[in-house]
Amino acid sequence: MATGPRFHAAWLAALALTMAPGHASEAMRYRDPQGIDIIRNRASAAPPATPTSAPPRSAVEPARFQIPTQEQQARDRDRLAILRQELATELNALASQQHQARSTDPEQARRMGAQQHRHQQNIRDLNAEIERASARQKAVEIFDNRP
After folding, report:
1. Which of 24, 118, 119, 142 shows a CA-CA span of 20 to 30 A to 34?
2. Residue 99 — pLDDT band, cuts 50, 70, 90?
3. How far apart are CA 21 and CA 97, in angstroms?
4. So what's the pLDDT on residue 117?
5. For the whole prediction, is pTM greater than 0.70?
């Protein structure tokens, strides 16, 4: 890379041109044909023909996705069924662990205690989640069936 006095002088001249006071005021904002806002200065390629105005209100609002009530109720029922299946699986795993712990030596039973504790915590969490989901489902049914 060149590092002589000419290079430094050229570099400083280029820097001075970009920092000139009128340089920043030449930037203009445009919207291209696809509706994308573009900011360009005079040194850039030719801008599109139309300057931008305020974007339409509909372009600013976030998209709203609304699931039909019947579909959401079906999803809620499926979720509740899945939670109940997971609860049954955890209860079976805990019962199996407890049965194995009774039929093994005390040292191995102690090691299995951590696994049993994890199953018990999962069962508590699943019961709480099922309770919340059931309460939500009942509230939605009451709301939908009001006069």
Report:
1. 24
2. confident
3. 78
4. 93
5. no
Could you say which DSSP state residue 102 is in? H
Q: Terminus-to-terminus CA distance in the chain, angstroms? A: 82
Q: Residue 7 is encoded by which pair of tokens?
A: 């290079």
Identify any residues that bridge with 39 across adjacent strands, giving them in sequence order. 29
Residue indicated by tokens 């019947």: 70
Arithmetic mean of pLDDT over the chain: 77
Instruction: List the beta strands (DSSP E) in the chain.
Output: 28-31, 37-40
Is 89 strand, coil or helix?
Answer: helix
Residues in the chain: 147
The DSSP symbol for 30 reads: E
**Chain center to CA of 55:** 26
User: Who's near 53: CB < 8 A, 6+ residues apart?
Assistant: 31
- How far apart CA 74 and CA 110 sit, in angstroms, is 44
pLDDT tens by residue, 11-45: 566 655 555 555 445 667 777 777 787 777 655 55
Is 27:43 a contact under the CB 8 Å cutoff? no
Sequence letter at residue 90:
E
CA distance 91 to 94: 5
Over residues 62-86, mean pLDDT: 88
